[in-house]
Predict the structure.
Amino acid sequence: MSKEYLTTSEIAGPLMIIQNVKDVKYNELVEITLKNGEKRKGQVMVAEEDKALIELYEPSIGIDPKEARVKFTGKGLEVPVSKNILGRIFNGFGEPIDDGPKIIPDDLIDINGNPINPFSRDYPNEFIQTGISSIDGLNTLVRGQKLPIFSGSGLPHSHLAAQITRQSKVLKTGEQFAVVFAAMGITFEEANFFINDLKETGALSKAVLFINLANNPVIERISLPRTALTVAEYLAFDLDMHVLVILTDMTNYCEALREISAARKEVPGRRGYPGYMYTDLASIYERAGRIKNKNGSITQIPIVTMPEDDKTHPIPDLTGYITEGQIFLSRDLYKKAIYPPIDVRPSLSRLKDRGIGKDKTREDHSDLMNQLYAAYSRGKDAEELAKILGEAALTSVDRIFVKFSDRFEREFVNQGEYENRNIEETLDIGWKLLSMIPIPELKRVREEYIEKYLKRFVSEEK
Amino acid sequence: MKKGIITKVSGPLVVARGLPFAKMYDVVLVGKLGLLGEIIQIKEDLSFIQVYEETSGIGPGEEVESTGTPLSVELGPGLIGSIFDGVQRPLDILSSSFGSYIVRGVKENPINRDKYWEFEPIVKEEDFVSEGDIIGLVQESEIVKHKILVPVGVKGKIKKIFKGDKRVEDVVAVLDNEGNEIEIKMLTKWPVRIPRPIVKKLPPDFPLITGQRVIDGFFPVAKGGTACIPGPFGSGKTVTQHQLAKWADADIIVYVGCGERGNEMTEVLIEFPELKDPKTGYPLMKRTILIANTSNMPVAAREASVFTGITLAEYYRDQGYDVALMADSTSRWAEAMREISGRLEEMPGEEGYPAYLASRIASFYERSGKVVNIGKEGRISTLSVIGAVSPPGGDLSDPVVQSTLRVTKVFWGLDDALASARHFPAINWLTSYSLYTVDLDSFYKKNINEELPKLREIAMELLEKEAELEEIVRLVGIDALSPKDRMILEGAKSIREDFLHQNAYHEIDTYTSLKKQYLMLKAIIKFYEEGNKALDEGIELDKIINLDVRVDIARAKYISESDLKYFDELFEKIERDFSSLKEKSKEEVR
């Protein structure tokens, strides 16, 4: 039987100080009961002998310090898990917010989890086919990877994430998939778009959704990704499923973090974000991965909308230091009506080399990837030059490259929102485009591959 | 024994009252779980403790017990090939005993107590030995002969010495020091925050050969020297560090993964046992110690991890080995200091970092060096330190970068623009520097070739001129340049693409010996100089730059080390091609 305290001495923003407490533990969950019986949750931030500093997970509106009954639960925030959570929608604490029945838990798990022992990790090396050429072909995603989408406001990152969710598969059969969708501070419309998309494709029955909308409590956004990842870990490592986790939008998460840090009067770091933001983000992103001797995996696709499209802003910057690459969306391509507007040049998948090649995708993948990349870069550079000095300043070869990069954007990068290209198709489009370029200029591909994969397009193109 | 009582818990900081015999930096056990912590501040009756494990569920009223000793590492045979966390807990053993996640309060001995090692004495009874003297040898891995040293502060006459299979806690020798018997075991301990003693430091004068052309050729680091690699994300810090750990010609490598990605450590764990050291032919893991405190592991242990790493490195340096330590990334280490400092409510310095940031960084890098070790023979050995720095947004005005630049002698500046042009290693040749170049020139001249430093000078000059000319090209187009200037651009391009660019994932290109580096550079410069001469004789630039031999120069990087005669043919071909070009032009004139 735990005691209830009526000794709240201070409330400021999301923080409360409770006096004359006993045996309070750091990080334990606190329940505050208001006069009208309403309950709010919080967590112990600082535990002292006779007082405790509490951070509320929910708004402090309406809390009267003289009336609030504070109960220390003796345990951290736990999320109930069971097989039946698939197809359900929850808030940031794992409480159902659809109209379904209560979850009868098989287990209760602390949302903070424990760090994976680096020795127990298994290296991600299984190719995931997303059906999107600019990802599969040039920035290949592998199982257990964390690959964020760096976007900007108004760009179609949600559509891209939904498409990845719809189309992702591994070129092996008989394995179970699940999607965990963690929405932090997004609009109703955006959330609705995802839910409808999952419904239409029948994927909702394999998905678990955690939703905190833009008008829901900010502070709930701190626990939400952790709750979602705890469920993902349960699905992956207890139920052997391959889980794709979409975290959107990490920018809102970081802003919530900043808000709380400011309320705690901590020394701010860059742009007011707390100095520990790197560690905090790592405790989310590093929960992706594979574990030796376990069948499941967690692949993360966090979405980061870069304020002012600036990749040196602390949120994309720190994310980039932790994640294994990034997919950049470009406003220029978007204006050219190219979907998905992925700029392949700054995009990178650090784990791609392990997931491609013979027996995984195709033997020529690596060479082709380097060649496409180099040719596109050269075309873009030449295009820049032509803008300043005029078309006439270009050599005839450079003009071909400019034409190539234009077609590359329109035919390789550009594809339908519901167009699912398999890896063979993606690679063949690549070869087909390369056939425009004189063969001596194709320095990054082996001659045997030119013979085998390129030649058949040469006559066609002419 | 009396214990202290916790009065406050705030994240990794715990305050305890009435802890008897509290000394600064002593290790304490916190709470019912016995979490590992360290005293970092004492105020009257209160001890402030940074805890190396997650403190959730710990509260006031629980007990704190002091171990009475500072944070120390265990030293002895069995370290090589291991993977430890920041406070030297063996991660492989934790994984097999406690599962895939790191749980709290678990303790395992860093060094296996049950394993037998064959101890082979090299001193006899009645010999007089003192600190640092070698008393025996143990074959620790196929390539590392572990030298058992007389511990610091110990001396005496050998009374007994035991040959044969011993465990690390068995007595291998007994000393007699004026009637007092001292037992010597293979296992010793050393506090991580105190440098191990040396006799004196010497100026470094040998290169640490890394097989990376931009490093060895242009910005070399000396054995016993220090280097830093700052760069934004995606610029290839970790790949560069991995390349150095793989190919640097040190005897022992200590790799500290400090607050970085878990999968990167897994990659090392998978790759290193497979890859063979070009010098010894044995797997790289047989000379490597890994410290992994990834970004999601407790922050205080991250703060300790670089000290743990460098103490292990010093221990092998004491044995007479050339050791290289890579720390990736020191920014995360600095951030750990910042976090703890913030919790202590210390007055912050720049960017919220503690005011002592610069002095901590300096004292870490100063533990490197070429030294004369304690011990009879006056063994000379080196400890090189290479630190990656991850400045926010790649901004070099970051306090961690600036504090590091003040104490390191080599700067390999990674460049975002190069990385996004897929030029790897993305080390910017215009901003990077090495203060060892001059000291090492005599080595290069003596061991590789007299003209190597000269070639490097020419190459650097070309690259600098290229940068100037690029400006002009950007404004008025390439046609505005004279043929001579365009030849400079061609030469510089060849240096960039055919020499500096190196593919870490190509089996041959990943490592280039100094000999081959010299030959490659020579071929490139030779072509440039011949080209210039040809221009003087009135030959058109297009004819020069379209010579077939350029393809052969470009291919040189993929030529195997056992096939260096390729270069003799290449040099001949360059000469032949140019002379036939001249012949032809003479004919045309006629």
Chain A touches chain B through 73 residues (CB under 8 Å).
